[in-house]
Every structure is written in structure tokens, then in C-alpha cells.
Design brief:
This protein is an all-alpha fold. The two termini are 40 Å apart.
């Protein structure tokens, strides 16, 4: 029997009265950020249906920023909870599975009618399966410590960013959504397969935890430069970022296999 509160793991069954009277702010704040991300994702769907595609994609980017913050805030405040983890997964499914699928469909794949909708639906389902697999993998205590540096497949926020690449290019008039619908159909299916694949990709979980004092100023400069580029040239920056990210797949695969071979050699 579970003897902990789903919201606060420090509260047991004997403290039920207190649990409903006082909830620490450290538990509420990360969930509020997650709900803000969910609001951005749902509003993105509305903007897409209304034909305001640039704002719709911008809201998904904003949801990704909130998604990156909520977990870090929870760990910093020691406010992680089972409730927050479940809420985060549901928000990720809407923000990075449902919203991008609908945006790509109404912007382009509607030209292909039912076939376009089937692929958009498949992308959303791939996101759901990827999130479910990730949640199950969290319970694997036997995995080597180095595997924490890798995801199995592309994470949901990155999958959404990849799926929206045709829209970034469309905003620069590089492609036309309805005319390029057959190509975008294949591309969206490819983006969905990346999420459910077993391709090892770098997680970036340890990125920024420890920075050498000599690198503080360069890192700050790069971060500011990236923010300026994202504000000034958002779709060019997102296109370059997605392309660079996909270019790391062969590198992460080779690094994963090398560590896997080293692990097997030590065990033998």
C-alpha cells in the first residue's frame, strides 16, 4: 500500500488532515510552471486553427522553455512529486504530440485529406508511446550510470521541434505547405519514428551542472547571442538548431556504442 501523498512524498497517511490544510509552496511552483506550459500548448492549437501559424509555433517553443524549467525548479526546491511527474507527462503529450500534429495538418497535410490526418494522428501516438516508455525506464535501477547521459530515441520536445521544421522553412517562403504536402507527410512520419526509435541521443541532463570558471564568460556570451538570434531571427535560428541537433545523431550513436562495448569488456 502506498503510504505517501502523491503530492508530497514527506506526508504519510497519519498526516492526512494536515495534508489538505497546508501544501508547501515548493510543491506548487513547479506544477504551476507545468500548467503554464500546458496553457501555451493548448493556445497554440487555437492559434493554428485560426491560421496564426507563427504565433502558434512560438507558443510551442514557449511551452518547451517552461518544460525545461519545471523539472529544474522542482529539483532545486526539492519539490519533486509523483503528481508533478504525471502532470508533466500529460502536458508533454499535448504540447509536443497533439499540438504539433494539428499544426502540421492544418498548415499542410489537410491537402491530403484522410491520409494526412492518419500520419498526423500517428505522430501524436508516437509521442504518447515515447513518453510511456520514458516513464517506465525511470524505474530501471539496474541500468548503468552512464546510460543516464542518453535518451532512447528523440525526446518529445525535440521531436516536436523536428516535426515543425517545415513550418519554419515555410515562414521564410522556402516551401509552400499545401504544395509540399506529400514530402511533409513523409517527413512527419519520420519525425514520429525518431521518437519511438531506439537511437541513443544525448540527454543533456548534466549540461550546465558544473562549468569551469574559465568558461563562464564564453557560455554567458553564447547564451545571450542565442537569445538575441532567437528573438531577431526566430525561424532561421530554429531551423539551424534542429538541423544541428539531427546532425549529432551519428555522434551520439557512436559514443553510446563505445561505452556499451567498454561496459561489456569490464563485465567479461
Amino acid at each position: 500500500m502506498n503510504t505517501q501523498s502523491p503530492l508530497d512524498p514527506d506526508v504519510g497517511p497519519g498526516d492526512s488532515n494536515r495534508r489538505f490544510k497546508v501544501v508547501p509552496m515548493r510543491l506548487l511552483l513547479p506544477n504551476i510552471v507545468t500548467l503554464l506550459a500546458l496553457c501555451a500548448g493548448i493556445t497554440s492549437i487555437r492559434m493554428g486553427v485560426a491560421g496564426r501559424y507563427e504565433l502558434a509555433v512560438g507558443l510551442i517553443v514557449l511551452a518547451a522553455v517552461f518544460d525545461a524549467l519545471d523539472g529544474r525548479i522542482a529539483r532545486f526546491l526539492k519539490g519533486t512529486s509523483r503528481f508533478g511527474a504525471e502532470l508533466d507527462s500529460l502536458a508533454d503529450f499535448v504540447n509536443f504530440g497533439v499540438a504539433p500534429a494539428i499544426l502540421v495538418f492544418v498548415w499542410s497535410l489537410d491537402e491530403l485529406k484522410n491520409l494526412g490526418w492518419i500520419v498526423a494522428l500517428a505522430f501524436a501516438l508516437c509521442c504518447a508511446l515515447r513518453l510511456a516508455r520514458f516513464n517506465v525506464a525511470l524505474d530501471d535501477d539496474d541500468a548503468p550510470a552512464w546510460k543516464a547521459n542518453y535518451f532512447s530515441g528523440v525526446p518529445a520536445p525535440a521531436g516536436a521541434a523536428i516535426a515543425l521544421l517545415p513550418l519554419y522553412l515555410g515562414f521564410h517562403n522556402v516551401i509552400d505547405g499545401p504544395e509540399a504536402a506529400p514530402i511533409i507527410l513523409i517527413y512527419l512520419a519520420f519525425a514520429g519514428l525518431l521518437m519511438v526509435s531506439r537511437i541513443p541521443t544525448w540527454s543533456g541532463k548534466n549540461l550546465g551542472k558544473r562549468i569551469s570558471s574559465n568558461l563562464v564568460l564564453p557560455v554567458m556570451l553564447v547564451a545571450v547571442l542565442f537569445a538575441v538570434l532567437l528573438i531577431s531571427y526566430p525561424w532561421f535560428t530554429m531551423s539551424a538548431l534542429v538541423t544541428a541537433y539531427m546532425a549529432t545523431f551519428p555522434l551520439s550513436y557512436r559514443a553510446y556504442k563505445r561505452q556499451e562495448a567498454e561496459d561489456a569488456a569490464k563485465a567479461s
